[in-house]
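Quick log. Single chain, no ligands specified.
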Amino acid sequence: MAVQSDPDAALMLRVKRGDRAAFAELVDKYKQPVMNFVFRRLHDETEAEDLAQNVFLQVYKSRARYKQTPKYSNWLFTITPNLCLNELRRRSRHPAESLEETQTENDDQAPRQIDDKSQAAAPDNVLQTVLSQKIDEALNELPDNQRSAILLCRQEDLSYEQIAKVLRCSLSATKSLIHRGRETLKEKLKPYLKSGDW
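-> predicted structure:
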């Protein structure tokens, strides 16, 4: 059946039967993609780690309800955006400014990907860092549903049908979200890109 084609779905079926080693294997494989997805939504590394742990806690708690799916990652990335959205709603109801944010408010303009500032980076690396920062800024300005759809499409490589299931909207609405998001990104990033392929 479909599970044979996806070893992760087979692992999740083992988790459903109480196999903790299978769960640890899934966590090891997916913790970084989940943290990356969450970080791009929340822009806080500590929160991304915490929320990623909550995602896997939710996976473990929901193991008895897991139904055989063609692709385990589709199921996982249904849970992840929902928890991100819940966190964003919670933040909007109870806004708080972290001490770290206050101290480093002006440091946000510095490229995050250059670790060793004592050595001059190659021009291509600097340009790539600046482009990544501009892409992140443009993504942040998109509405939540558009940003989620774009991230699921580009970062997690899900199909439109899979994204529609994750976002709980129709296929045509999903295509529209992605199209509008891409058009907005293309317009905002036009000065930084040679082509509008993103």
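The longest helix spans residues 20-42.
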